[in-house]
Amino acid sequence: MFAGLPELGISNGEDLKETLTNCTEPLKAIDQFQMENGILLPTLQSALPFLDLHGTPRLEFHQSVFDELREKLMERVATIAEGKDEDRYIKLEELLEKSFPLVKMPSIQPIVMQVLKHLQKVPEKKLKQVMADKELYKVCAVEVKRQIWQDNQALFGDEVSPLLKQYIVEKEAALFSSDLSVLHNFFSPSPKTRRQGEVVLKLTQMIGKNVKLYDMVLQFLRTLFLRTRNVHYCTLRAELLMSLHDLDISEICSVDPCHKFSWCLDACIREKFVDAKRARELQGFLDGVKKGQEQVLGDLSMILCDPFACNTLVLSTVRNLQELLSQDALPRDSPDLLLLLRMLSLGQGAWDMIDSQVFKEPRMDLEVVTRFLPAMMSIVVDDYTFTVEQKLPSEEKSSLTYPTTLPETFSRYVQENRVACEIGLYYVLHIAKQRNKNALQRLLPALVDTYNDMAFGDIFLHLLTGYLTLLSDEFGSEEFCTAVFDNFLLTSFSSKENVHRHCLRLLNHLHQKVLASYMETLMKTLEPPKQFEGPHQVMVQGELVTPDLEFAG
């Protein structure tokens, strides 16, 4: 407990023990020890007996003086560090040399830690001693840990890893939330709100202004994205940069070549739309990538692969297509639309680019613009035509029935092209949000076979199940239930555990609306196989619970 005192020429308990063992007059020896090691203030000696008369133990008095002096010294250390004296760090280093031998003493340790915290560069030897001692490492300030981490990537990785895992768990819990709502879904929180999350704040604090640590975190995120293909790592990459931007950490923001692009894109995500002015800015950044700096495309593609960025780009694309329809214009004539597709293509190709280390914008398939989008617009026109037809007086109506098939080009591109598939899926979400039952029944069967099974991804199913609550009354019809379940969701639920869970989320919300006879069949279909040790579970507020599905009556 009092290790280090002899090094500084101060007596400790062992010295007192030895003195008392070897002396002939113990009381005199104690008086002498107190005189030599007490507070060296002549006027105090005559005042101490007064404390004795009041029954105040000497220990209590010395402890209170010690506590007061410690607080004053710690304040003084902070004042010196914040001052402008050229020799301020020399003073702190001298104090560190004197106090460090006592670092294991609980009462002195805060002073040593305060000095270490305020030193811009802690001597290497001291850093190694702190790192080698688990207890010291645990209690030292993050400012000291940064100096340790920057030369110990493995140790930094051990600190960061649990946070990255926690971040992914939180994102997946949000996607499987039992709260199905159109108003509050995965994409509802604003960028600024998301950056107040525990993991982002902790990582931001751990990095501070240290560019080396920031680069390490980015490398961890790239590696994990490559290993898992989990797009939430792309979200964290963007959130981390913008969190540092919020704190005005220019030391990092000024050296990250993606900063201004991310800042502009962040404003678009906040508005859930890319307007013409910001579109020009974003295009300027992409066109401004100079020869020899192509590697920045890897980071830009990762930022564009963030689901929040992708959501904004596709929503803007669908809105753009609606405007083109109202103007009788073609997709190929819209520069804004072409830029949105270019950014979508770059984001969708992030994994391939980082994996291959070939930093080149993926070539966009022009037929997406000249064939797929017109085919999708023809579906919109079919829908408008049928809606107008229904509103006509009976004598003016033709025998027009709602089309049930889709243009071959639409189905083929949704199967073969990543960008086309993403746009197609968002169009389905768009019509679900509009409560368009006919269009939904027409389109859902086409989603059984999509590029890389994107229609069975958690983000799309999370949004679709939320929007389907708007059509809750339609679930009383067998035709609609068949379209949603038999023709789409149930085609893959047995091979995809996540689809099973999304089906249960939907039924947990809509069971009272679903046709009773159909509900009974669904219950049997969705029942977990016998080899399951326990009942199927659903993520509710971050915890797995067994849903009560015995409600069809």
UniProtKB/TrEMBL annotation:
InterPro entries on file: COBRA1 (IPR010405)
GO biological process, one term: negative regulation of transcription elongation by RNA polymerase II
Organism superkingdom: Eukaryota
GO cellular component: NELF complex
PANTHER family with a match to the protein in the record: NEGATIVE ELONGATION FACTOR B, NEGATIVE ELONGATION FACTOR COMPLEX MEMBER B
Name this polypeptide is given: Negative elongation factor B-like
